[in-house]
Amino acid sequence: MTVTDWHAHLWPRAYCDFLAARGQDCSHQQGVVPGDDSAAMLRRRLQQMDDCGIDRQVLNAAALYPGLAPLRQNARAARLANEAMAEAVGTSPDRFALLGVLPLPLVAESLRELDHLMNHLGARGVVLPPALHGTSTLRPHYDPLYAALDDARAVLLYHPAGTRAGASLCDPDAVAWSVGAIAEQTTVVLDWLAADMSHRFPHIRPIVSRAGGACFLLDPDTLRDVATSTLCFDSHTQGNTAALGLAERHVGRHRILLGTDYPFIRDARLAEAVRLFRH
């Protein structure tokens, strides 16, 4: 059986440089986490995949979504990111695949970029934030985009954009990110159910990152709706086997896909993430 990692990041240097030059903060991706598209980094990635038994990674550039002003610059940024990521995939097409980014909230521009991704770059689908500028990406404004994703039978990974929901007494960024991510991952499940997306767009393959946040702690009626939906979930739970087991109990093993969050999770932690998924 092919072992595919559906939650793995790549941040092309040219994309980060483009955003940074226009005022978007890319400091984390440019320096803190080693995940660029240089030949050395791609070799390192492949070696770690080999060491851990990962056959393929499906690469995405979240949570570094294009967020420029004026908004029209986001179309140029998304094209740059997707072209660069496709080049990285092309270095090892048997080991890498692509989920592209889109210039939301621009729907017409996103439809054009989706066509380019699916019909010219060979992408498997896209990665989207659950919310953008405080509003859900499942609101009717985006219905034409979901219809196109449905027509393409695309994979859709929901990955947080970095909402800083809540606050801690010490207010460390790491805690603020974690709280915001859980909120985004949980609410996107509820938004998906409320909008009846599984029935309206049955051919999209939706994956919610990090096992759906806290959605499997919700009420039994909601859990039944999750179980009968088309939603799938990735296995990245920071080693929380109880959370992973709860997700499997409610939707079945076949709807839990390997997700590692590489390169945030790497080396020994990457091997452990794969081991926990397999068991």
Can you describe this structure?
The structure is a single chain. This protein has 279 residues and is α/β, with parallel strands linked by helices. It has a single domain (4-278), classed as Alpha-Beta Barrel (TIM Barrel), CATH 3.20.20. It contains eleven helices and ten strands. The radius of gyration is 18 Å and the shape is globular. Helix content is 45%, strand content 13%. The strands form two sheets. An eight-stranded parallel β-sheet has the order 1-2-3-4-7-8-9-10. Strands 5-6 form a two-stranded antiparallel sheet.
Keywords:
TIM Barrel, 279 residues, 10 strands, 11 helices, alpha/beta, two-stranded antiparallel sheet
The CATH architecture classification is: Alpha-Beta Barrel
Q: What characterizes the major β-sheet?
A: 8 strands, parallel
Mean pLDDT: 93
Helical fraction equals 40-55%
Distance linking N and C termini = 15 Å
> Which homologous superfamily in CATH is the superfamily?
Metal-dependent hydrolases
Topology-level CATH name: TIM Barrel
How many distinct beta strands?
A: 10
Oligomer designation:
single chain
Number of self-contained structural domains: 1
List the helices and strands and how they pair.
Elements: E1 4-9, H1 13-21, H2 27-32, H3 39-52, E2 56-60, H4 73-91, E3 96-100, H5 107-119, E4 125-128, E5 131-132, E6 135-136, H6 143-151, E7 155-158, H7 173-194, H8 197-200, E8 205-208, H9 220-227, E9 232-234, H10 241-251, E10 256-257, H11 268-278
Parallel strand pairs: 1-2, 2-3, 3-4, 4-7, 7-8, 8-9, 9-10
Antiparallel strand pairs: 5-6
Helix pairs in contact: 1-4, 4-5, 5-6
